[in-house]
Amino acid sequence: MPDDPRRRTPRTDAVLADPAVAGAAERLGRARVKSVVVAVLDDVRSGSVDPSDAAAEVLSRLPAAATSLRPVVNATGVVVHTNLGRAPLSAAAVAAVRLAAGPTDVEMDLGTGRRGPRGTGALGALAAAVPDAGGVHVVNNGAAALSLVACALAQGREVVIARGELVEIGDGFRIPELLESMGVRLREVGTTNRVRLADYEAAVGPATAFVLKVHPSNFRVEGFTSSVPVSELTGLGLPVVVDIGSGLLAPHPRLPDEPDAASVLREGASLVTASGDKLLGGPQCGLLLGEAALVESLRRHPFARALRVDKLTLAALEATLTGPPSPVAAALATRPEDLMGRARRIAEELGGVAVASEGRVGGGGAPGVPLASAAVALSPDLAKALRLGDPSVVGHVHDGRLLLDLLTVPAELDDVLVEAVRRAAT
Ligand SMILES: *Cc1c(COP(=O)(O)O)cnc(C)c1O
């Protein structure tokens, strides 16, 4: 039969030579593209794909980039969304990452051509951002920062911590278990809701390495509560280590209860640990700030090598600290009336409704603090198609409506959002 698809099936090489398919092979690797071509040609032979559509079918089955990660528009209103990779990087940080991806002088003094100290730009920027810190160091994440402190200062010894600060961060990760896994004995003081200076005084002794304060960054205890400020704990005569979690370097007017590194150091903390990808708005990393000699002893500890950050992180961190405001900072600086103006424009284009809404910082800090925002309310039936679109759009369903919250959507993505909703609705 002249119309038998088996006879009209193109050769693998011919499909691979198609300019668009060849371009995909350059981006994604020839082996990967070829395996898709082979699969498509099988379908041509079986008659489920028309021979003239082979190249287009191959392209439709290939991802846009050589990563299975998909870009998402965060319309949840949760500024630091753990499941969406926490802080999105600024354009300046992305450019810095691109630059650092090639060979770069991360550990070379180009003046002498010899080995130089690693990451001086990022560490200098961090030190400049927090002048109260005598020394600074950067590791892989907040948990790594705390692990290094525990390992270097308290292995085989005791750490005193309030019962109300035995925090689980998420996905079953618990700070007390992390400390115990480093060979630290925990000496818990106080009750879930209250702890006094006298509790700490009774617990410290020769075996105590340091007193630890952990910020409850994802829950709030209200009512009959009390805790001991850092300024009083310093009177115990031991190092006070404070895990502030969110990575705010200085007080933020919109988040008055969120601890920041500068204030905690000024209160007398010896060391502060924090994450880089929460309220600081940078790449995943862990910050260590505090007394110069202590920080230097951490940096020199053998375990520090296992927690070392790569050059991409150093580049992104420096750009976050010295460049234009990060998307997280920009979200926190938005005015609800501006967000409402955008919501109205988008709603008008889409036939939805603009509504006032409340965003949140999210897992990154400031639990329970509402952030006034505005959203476009649409039918919840669109939620799945929007999530599966390209780019994916993730909102949240509330009271039977899908809310696309604009607090976390940069204004330059408004058109992208409109287009995504139109596609999802068809
Ligand atoms: C988030 C957080 C951590 C863990 O930091 P990672 O960067 O996720 O490792 C530790 N302590 C507190 C108080 C936190 O909020």
List keywords for this structure.
alpha/beta, five-stranded mixed beta sheet, 38% helix, Aspartate Aminotransferase, domain 2, 426 residues, binds pyridoxal-5'-phosphate, Aspartate Aminotransferase, domain 1, seven-stranded mixed beta sheet, 18 strands
In short:
Helices cover 38% and strands 19% of the residues. With 426 residues, it is α/β, with parallel strands linked by helices. It folds into 3 domains: 9-61, no CATH class; 72-85 and 329-425, Aspartate Aminotransferase, domain 1 (Alpha-Beta Complex), CATH 3.90.1150; 91-323, Aspartate Aminotransferase, domain 2, CATH 3.40.640.
Number of domains: 3
Q: What's the tally of helices?
A: 18
The biggest sheet amounts to: 7 strands, mixed
What is the helical fraction, as a range of percent?
25-40%
Q: What do you see in this structure?
A:
This protein has 426 residues and is an alpha/beta fold. The protein folds into 3 domains: 9-61, no CATH class; 72-85 and 329-425, Aspartate Aminotransferase, domain 1 (Alpha-Beta Complex), CATH 3.90.1150; 91-323, Type I PLP-dependent aspartate aminotransferase-like (Major domain) (Aspartate Aminotransferase, domain 2, 3-Layer(aba) Sandwich), CATH 3.40.640. 38% of the residues lie in helices and 19% in strands. The chain is built from 18 helices and 18 strands. The strands form 5 sheets. It has a 7-stranded mixed sheet with strand order 5-13-12-11-10-6-9, sandwiched between helices. The chain has a 5-stranded mixed sheet with strand order 2-14-15-18-17. The radius of gyration is 26 Å and the shape is globular. The site of pyridoxal-5'-phosphate has 13 residues, from helix 8 and strand 11.
